[in-house]
Amino acid sequence: MANLFHPSFGSRPERIVGRDDVIAQFLKGLQREPGHRDRATLILGQRGMGKTALLLQLAEEAKSRGFVPARVTAGEDMLEEIIESIQIGGSEFVSEKPSRVRGFSAGALGFSFGLTFSEEVRANYGFRTKLSLLCDKLAENDKGVLLLVDEVQPNTDAMRALASAYQHLAGEGKNVAIVMAGLPGSLSRVLNDKVLTFLNRARKHHLGPLSSGDIMAYYGDALARERRLVSPDLLMRATAATRGFPYLLQLIGYYIVEFTAEGDEVSSDQLDRAIAAARLELVEDVFFPTLNALSARDAEVLRAIAAQKTSPASVADVIASLGIDNGYFQPYRARLIDAGVVEAPRDGALSITVPYLAEYLNGKGEAGKES
């Protein structure tokens, strides 16, 4: 039997834990008339909070309800990727016969066959027109279009073009919906972009740590299906070790299954080994990429935050430990927040968002042993 737990970024676990309200609100939005605010969704969350897995789930849910999903990662080529994804995903619903599209000049072919654009459209029209044509063509077959953008980046021409196209097509009553996901800092700057202010009307969901109840219930069910017996005490320990982090939920569950035989009861030692293995993998998969993306000075500031005795840390104490003034500190604070490494739970305070990263930076515990 294949392991039910899938601890890898960019993959969809067999069940999305603790996000039922988000999924329900999204599906409710798809039932609204085109152009309704509930058809635009923003998902904000720190690294490892399950944004990508949730997007994959939303795409599957929408597909089963008559939408053709186009899921991309934000970047320079995302507009072309969206068009190609819709053409590939929607081709099974459209006849391959040549067809003309209403609204074009007399004799102009919108598509040469299926969802393949004619040479005229391919050479002379931009993203918004091509997306509009695809929406119209799929609507003839009672299909809508769902746009999903992961790792949203602010202040890019592609992002502005996509959001502007969606705003216009929604206003024209096209059967289209959009979901964007990203770090809180990045999405905040997107919402402050003068061209994209209409996105402030979108439904916003902040993905925080999972509740202990949701994690424990899932572990109990999934491990039972894996035919592993777990005592209530060990179930509580496994749950607490995740710190509400969806990625750790998958990692710890994966190693529990790997370290125990089918039909056996999980021992305390086996659970300890599973947690230790998960935390070591966290170093490779999360800590190294996170820290390598920071400048040397940003990393130094992050270490100063981790070194404080309280969490969240006092900004005044961090500044004092670094020997700098507040004006000099603020750019580093802003960059660390944008990177999704820290957050400001209240004025004058900062906390590290990634579980066990503070211990790692301080050289403590399994995930605190630098290699």
UniProtKB/TrEMBL annotation:
Q: Which SUPFAM superfamilies match?
A: P-loop containing nucleoside triphosphate hydrolases
User: One Pfam family this chain carries?
Assistant: AAA_16
Q: Where is the Orc1-like AAA ATPase domain?
A: 16-179
Q: Which domain of life is it from?
A: Bacteria
InterPro entries in the record, alphabetically? AAA_16, P-loop_NTPase
Q: What is this protein called?
A: AAA family ATPase
Q: Which organism is it from?
A: Adlercreutzia mucosicola
Taxonomy, top ranks, is:
Bacteria, Bacillati, Actinomycetota, Coriobacteriia, Eggerthellales
